[in-house]
Write a structure and sequence with these properties.
Order of helices and strands: EEEHEHEHEEHEEEH
Number of helices: 5
Radius of gyration: 16 Å
Helix content: 25-40%
Strand order of the largest sheet: 5-6-7-8
Largest sheet: 4 strands, parallel
Oligomer: single chain
């Protein structure tokens, strides 16, 4: 899995999502083979912010990841709120191997690697149907699929997804040969 870390939340508690994360959590995820990606330091909206400020905030994010003990290369980025400007997307493409937005879909064939498509996971029947349909499309098309959410658990926040949905998607992907 990939985890995009908004570093101003390190050691913080969110009113809507509870305890966030710390450096030890990042190290544990990385040691287990998960990717740690950049997300901006302050969770700013890249579609509504001048490029210079976006660059500075992403730089702060990378420094804070390093200060939290993350030593691996950070090669991916996810746009907070999923949107961006052309100039910020172009800059992200020069700095990172990939950038992920929230435009729905499966990545197949020629893709915009600075604005990869994704499918949102949530705690509703609609989210489950969309995720399963996207997974089938991805497998049939031999594509590349991102699922995104903010937290995963038995009782996720209003921005999160239930752990049983993630387990079902993983099991179906394995059974399909993904």
């Amino acid at each position: 899995a990939g985890f995009y870390a908004c570093t101003s939340f390190i050691n913080q508690r969110s009113p809507s999502m509870g305890e966030m994360f710390d450096g030890a959590t990042l190290a544990e995820l990385s040691a287990r083979g998960h990717e740690i990606g950049a997300h901006t330091h302050t969770h700013l909206d890249c579609a509504r912010t001048r490029l210079e400020k976006v660059e500075r905030d992403i730089g702060e994010n990378l420094v804070a990841l390093s200060e939290a003990g993350h030593i691996d290369n950070v090669s991916s980025f996810a746009f907070p709120y999923g949107e961006t400007t052309y100039s910020a997307k172009r800059w992200v493409g020069e700095v990172f191997a990939t950038g992920r937005g929230i435009l729905p879909g499966v990545n197949v064939g020629d893709v915009d690697r600075s604005q990869l498509r994704a499918v949102e996971l949530g705690d509703s029947a609609m989210h489950r149907r969309r995720a399963l349909a996207a997974l089938k499309t991805c497998i049939d098309a031999k594509g590349w699929l991102f699922f995104f959410t903010h937290d995963v658990g038995k009782a996720p926040s209003k921005h999160g997804a239930p752990s049983d949905l993630l387990a079902e998607l993983a099991q179906r992907a394995v059974e399909a040969g993904a």
